[in-house]
Amino acid sequence: MNFFIDTADIDEIRAAYEMGLVDGVTTNPTLIKKAGKDHEKTIREISALVPGPISVETLSETAEGMLEEAREYVTWGNNIVIKIVMTAEGMKAVRALSEQGVKTNVTVTFSPLQALVAAKAGATYISPFVGRLDDIGHVGMDVISQIRTIYDQYDFETQILVASVRHLTHVLESALMGADVVTVPGKVLMQMLNHPLTDKGIATFLQDAKQWQKEPA
Ligand code: E4P
Fold first, then answer.
1. How many helices (H) and strands (E) does the chain have?
2. Which of helix, strand or coil describes residue 170?
3. Is the beta carbon of 131 within 6 A of some atom in ligand 1?
4. Which residue's CA is the closest to the ligand 1 atom numbered 12?
5. For 134-177, how does the pLDDT look when each residue is reduced to its tens digit (9 = 90+)?
6. What's the gap in Å between 113 CA and the centre of ligand 1?
């Protein structure tokens, strides 16, 4: 299972990368805006730091425009994945990029049928937004389970990239359901390390070790 980090904040990426927790990075226009730096400069910096796939989102509404953006984005690093929204024009662009051997990530998706369409178009990744489904009273993770069943049944190679992750249960269920990748905000990634019994156990060991530890000079 791969962990991607869902941020464009280079310090946050570096901190998680140094712990071996970053196999790739996903960005979107909102995350780039939040990071507050130039788009190209930010992506180049991330791409130089993390060797794994870096998703960069196109903004055009036509396949032609998306392909033009893709041609530019792939010059920003050797690990760029072109993020494309789930529209008819988007699927045209995904098919063309797939034929050119360029990796794609189909984004802003919410249903297993959209995942089936993306796989047919030749997408490398499908990004279902589980948190946004939960926000409107659905169970986002049900979609992941359904996509897993469909992809396995027909041996699709498209990887399930669980996106819009809000909390640890999304990460745990992604692992249990066999999602290929989960893209996690830095804060949630760090929460994975925590357990109250770990804190208590470490405190007890340190306390007991004081019996023989010398006072620092
Ligand atoms: C990542 O690829 C998505 O763009 C991101 O996870 C969306 O998350 P949000 O629903 O928290 O904006």
1. 11, 8
2. helix
3. yes
4. 164
5. 999 999 999 999 999 999 999 999 999 999 999 999 999 999 99
6. 19
